[in-house]
Structures are given as structure tokens and as C-alpha cells.
Design brief:
It comes from Oncorhynchus mykiss (Rainbow trout). By secondary structure, the protein is α/β, with parallel strands linked by helices. The chain is built from 26 helices and 7 strands.
Length: 578
């Protein structure tokens, strides 16, 4: 005979038991209204035995109407206690959630963790004026330094878990790696990941920031990168973009060589494409102009004016007196690529005023007034402005490498046009040179391998054999051709049908590649904004957490999940004021 199961007997609570045995039903279980105890099995015998054993003497003189009134009174008391408990629980969860939200804002704004105490004091003062009856609710929100640090770490861990979970769906991904030094002279290795899933949706996120306290050789870089990639799948790694430094690109012991060896050990079938950051290439090509002698004179002149406070004040007063369009000169920083063009442009526009000011200071201005120098300065000013324009076009998030290549390809075509026009003394695109009425030649931009073009214009015969049949089908499909014209190259890949798997794989690998290390450079700016001379003791773990929160793009912390994990924790006012 099978054993009886209480859950399958469909036993129901009867209303009469409330007055007869002083029981009510709470969350599916019978609960005594007199003592609060619950009975495991819903049977009248169990309820009657409990009542007769423990409470029979209390209500023996009551009639049925009095019993009903007593039961209703006890039920109201129980409900009020439950409501109070739920309210306290919800208030506690709201306080914890509020601390998470404020911790995220503090991290994003590069504020120190101690800002939490300042924010709380402001909240309390506002509460005292607006809603003093709710002061205790604001006091319950813990915003102490330790609490903010803990919340930031929890938010960072949550984002990392989401990224790792998302990474399992990637069919191809690439890395962007760059290295810089923080305020404490600690080398920091920045790593970003760009992955594509089966729907050809692109995810571009911060992967890790690794402090390197010792050497920064190719082997050291590889050890740090491999720790991150081990959480993903080596066989899905298709691209690696670096700044082109020897430790990154060395043929034998560089990071690229080490990763290729590791992929062979892991029996990865794909070939790793190592790419030199397009923005770094553009900056390096700009230095091929051989105009250091012009820039050195400009730099010395600017430093003379800006380095000493008296000279700087007198120069600004001098410009004000002359009623010039610009009232000052900017500094030039070698690391900031765009600053050179701004300094050159301002110096060219104020060349007469600068010479007059230097004459008043007894400085020799022969070089600054030399006609050849002014022509070279005008050309450098114009070509640098064009280089700055392409530099800005190459920057930004979610840039597809094929679009970046198209930008470079267009700039090469422009260079050819400019050279032809300048040989014919047509200076329409060089306003500074037009001012000097001189003609100069320009240098060519280095060639770059095209990675992705118009699939409808590709020569099928010269394409890889595994793509040829699908390319023919694609180029003969009028509907797909119309879709390409409507959405463009970057979005068209998502509309490739499942009957073209090789083209989809090729598109995924190309979409996953980083065209530059712009995100790494941007992260270093965030790092310097957070780890300043006033916060030089910021730990590597906290810095890592702050930067993960600040640089998150498509991922957002799941604060409700974090609050749920913390259970029914409620911070007391005494703890929150520490």
C-alpha cells in the first residue's frame, strides 16, 4: 500500500475553526491566534488537541459570539504586526538599494568614497526642512566610507559576472590592450573585449585593469592577459589590437607571439589577427612630416610667454589692448595629440602680436619673421588640422573596423587630391597656406589592408574558396542588395540569412575586431581622474571596481539582485553614522 501524502489530500481550512480553536490560516499553514504557534499538518484533530492542551482554560466561559469577536480582534492584531514587519523589511531593503545607487553615482563621478558621508549630511538637512517626519528613513541609509567601498566592489563583481555570462554566447571576440603608468608610477594594463554573438550583436566592454609592479616585458603582459582570457574561450579569440610597442608586437617574445603560441597549444583553428591601433598609426604618420624645427620654435615661444606668470599676464593684457579675437595662447602637450593643431592655429593667427610682444621684451624675432619659416608654419598648421579631423573621426565607442578603414582610405584619396592641387597652386583646402601665397607638397599616407568592403562589389574569383558560392548567392539576391543600400555595411551583417554561414562567421570576426586602443586611452584618462595625488593610496581592487562601473556601456548593475542577495539586512542608525 502506497504511503499517504498530506499534500495530495487537498485539505482546506474551515472558517469555524477560527472561533472554535482560535486558529487562522497564514501562508498555507494554520497558526494559533493566542500563542502564535503553527501546526504542521492541517487536520482538525491537531488544532483541537493544541487548543485543549494549551488554551482551554482561557476561553471556557465565552459563548460563540464572544469567541467570534475575540477571534476577529486577534486576527486584526496579527495583520497589523505582519504589516509592520513587511514595512520594516521594505524600508530596510530600500535603504540598502539607495546605498547601492549612490555608490554607483559616486564611482561614475570619480568622487572619493568619503563623499558618502557628505551626501548623507546634505540629505538629512534637506529632510529636516522638507519632511522631518521621515528623518529616520534617511538615517537608515548607510553611506560611510567602508559601506561605499563595499558597494562599489559588489557592483563591479555583478558587472563582471554579467560579462562572463554574456561571453559564453560569443562566437568571436577580440581584445584591445594598452599600457600606461598611474600617479604612483605603477604600470597599469588595460584590457577591453569586443564580442559578437550568434545574432551578430556586438558587445564592447571593459574586461580588466591589471597593475604590474615589476617589469612589463612581453611575457609579463601575456601572463596578465591570459588570466582574463582563461575565463573565455581561446578558440573564439580572433583579433588583438595593441599600441604597436615592442613588448606588444615582438616577433618572438612579444604579447602577440605568446598568444599565438597559446592558441596553438589550445588547438584553436582560427588565425589571430594582430592589429596596430589605427589612431596610433595616424599619429605616427603625422610625425613623418619632418617639421620638428618649426614645432620647436613654436614651443619655445609659447613656453616663454606661458611659463612665467608676469609674462603671461602682460601678454593677455597686450592682446586685450589690441582687441584681438583671441585672448591667450594654449599649451602644447606631446601626449595629447590634438593639442599641437590648436597651438599652431592660435600661434599662426597671432603671429604679428607675438612678434610685437617679444620685441617689447627684447627677444630676437628673426626666425618668427622669416618668410620660409612662416610658410612651413602655415603648411604645418593646415595639415595638422586635417590630421586632427581624421583623428576625431577614428575615436569613439562601437566603431566598426571597416568604417575606420574607409575613413583612412578616404583621407589617402584626399591627400592625393591636395598634392595635385598644391602643385597647381590651388590652396583652397589650405587656408593658412593661402594666406602666405606659397605652394608646398605633402607626403602620402601609408597603405592599410582592407578588412571589410562592399560585399556586392567584391571580386568573387579572388575571394577565399569557402566564401565564393555564398558570395554569388548574395550578389544575385536583389532583396539583400536593397537591404544593404538601406541600412549600410555596419548593420547589414545582421540581415545575412542562416543559409550563408561562412559569410556570417566572416562578418562576426570582422565586427568583433577593435580598430584602435581608444577605449584603453579613455580608461587611462578615467584612471588619472580617480587616482590623483590626493588619492594615491587607492587600492588596485577599488580602482578596478571604480573603472568597471565608470566604463560600463551595454551592461548595468543588477541592484535588485544585489539587494536580494544581502537578504533582510537592515542597517541601524548607530552603524550608519560611523
Amino acid at each position: 500500500m502506497a504511503k499517504r501524502k498530506v499534500d495530495t489530500e487537498n485539505r482546506g481550512f474551515q472558517t469555524r475553526w477560527e472561533s472554535e480553536y482560535m486558529f487562522t490560516k497564514v501562508a498555507g499553514k494554520p497558526v494559533c491566534l493566542l500563542c502564535g504557534e503553527s501546526v504542521a499538518v492541517l487536520k482538525e484533530y491537531n488544532l483541537r488537541r493544541h487548543y485543549e492542551t494549551k488554551h482551554a482554560d482561557k476561553n471556557k466561559n465565552m459563548d460563540m459570539e464572544q469567541r467570534l469577536q475575540k477571534a476577529e480582534e486577534l486576527k486584526r492584531g496579527l495583520k497589523s504586526r505582519q504589516a509592520l514587519f513587511k514595512k520594516a523589511k521594505s524600508q530596510g531593503q530600500a535603504a540598502v538599494k539607495a546605498s547601492f545607487i549612490l555608490a554607483e553615482e559616486i564611482a561614475k563621478s570619480a568622487r572619493p568614497f568619503t563623499e558618502g558621508d557628505f551626501i548623507k549630511n546634505c540629505m538629512i538637512k534637506v529632510c529636516d526642512e522638507v519632511c522631518p517626519e521621515k528623518r529616520q528613513l534617511f538615517l537608515n541609509v548607510s553611506l560611510s566610507r567602508n559601506t561605499i567601498a563595499e558597494r562599489v566592489d559588489q557592483l563591479s563583481i555583478n558587472l563582471k559576472e554579467q560579462l562572463v555570462k554574456k561571453g559564453k554566447d560569443f562566437i568571436a571576440y577580440s581584445l584591445a590592450v594598452d599600457e600606461s603608468t598611474d600617479i604612483s608610477d605603477i604600470a597599469q594594463l588595460s584590457i577591453f573585449i569586443r564580442g559578437v554573438d550568434s545574432n551578430l550583436s556586438v558587445t564592447e566592454e571593459f574586461l580588466a585593469l591589471r597593475p604590474m609592479h615589476g617589469t612589463t616585458t612581453g611575457h609579463d603582459l601575456y601572463e596578465e592577459v591570459s588570466r582574463c582570457v582563461n575565463e573565455m574561450a581561446w578558440e573564439k579569440l580572433v583579433g588583438l589590437t595593441t599600441d604597436g610597442a615592442p613588448a606588444m608586437c615582438g616577433h618572438r617574445s612579444g604579447l602577440v607571439a605568446k598568444i599565438r603560441e597559446k592558441m596553438q597549444e589550445e588547438n584553436a583553428t582560427g588565425e589571430l589577427t594582430a592589429y596596430h591601433c589605427i589612431i596610433h598609426q595616424e599619429a605616427l604618420c603625422g610625425k613623418a612630416l619632418k617639421m620638428e624645427h618649426v614645432m620647436s620654435i613654436i614651443t619655445r615661444t609659447v613656453n616663454f610667454i606661458r611659463a612665467k606668470g608676469l609674462n603671461h599676464r602682460q601678454f593677455k593684457a597686450f592682446l586685450t589692448e589690441l582687441e584681438t579675437e583671441h585672448g591667450d595662447l594654449p599649451y602644447h602637450t606631446e601626449v595629447r595629440w590634438l593639442s599641437q593643431g590648436k597651438v599652431l592655429q592660435r600661434c599662426f593667427e597671432l603671429r604679428e602680436e607675438i612678434c610685437l610682444f617679444l620685441d617689447s621684451k627684447g627677444k630676437d624675432t628673426t626666425q618668427l619673421r622669416d618668410e620660409m619659416f612662416l610658410c612651413e608654419m602655415a603648411f604645418l598648421c593646415d595639415i595638422t588640422s586635417h590630421l586632427n579631423a581624421i583623428n576625431l573621426q577614428l575615436q569613439g565607442r562601437d566603431r566598426v573596423i571597416s568604417d575606420m578603414y574607409s575613413t583612412v582610405k578616404a583621407f589617402k584619396t584626399k591627400l592625393t587630391l591636395w598634392e595635385t592641387q598644391m602643385r597647381k597652386e590651388n590652396l583652397s583646402h589650405f587656408p593658412s597656406c593661402q594666406t602666405m601665397k606659397e605652394k608646398l607638397s605633402t607626403s602620402a599616407f601609408p597603405s592599410t589592408q582592407e578588412l571589410l568592403g562592399n560585399p556586392f562589389a567584391v571580386d568573387v574569383e579572388s575571394s577565399p574558396p569557402n566564401l565564393q558560392m555564398e558570395l554569388i548567392d548574395l550578389q544575385c539576391n536583389d532583396a539583400l542588395r536593397a537591404k544593404y543600400a538601406a541600412v549600410g555595411a555596419a548593420e547589414f551583417a545582421r540581415f545575412l540569412p542562416g543559409t550563408m554561414p561562412q559569410l556570417r562567421i566572416q562578418a562576426a570576426q570582422t565586427l568583433s575586431m577593435f580598430g584602435s586602443t581608444y577605449l584603453c586611452e579613455q580608461l587611462f584618462s578615467l584612471m588619472n581622474l580617480n587616482k590623483t595625488s590626493h588619492r594615491s593610496r587607492l587600492t588596485a581592487e577599488h580602482l578596478h571596481s571604480i573603472l568597471r562601473i565608470s566604463s560600463a556601456q551595454s551592461l548595468t548593475p543588477n541592484i535588485d539582485e544585489l539587494v536580494e542577495k544581502m537578504g533582510h539586512h537592515q542597517v541601524s542608525p548607530s552603524t550608519s553614522n560611523k
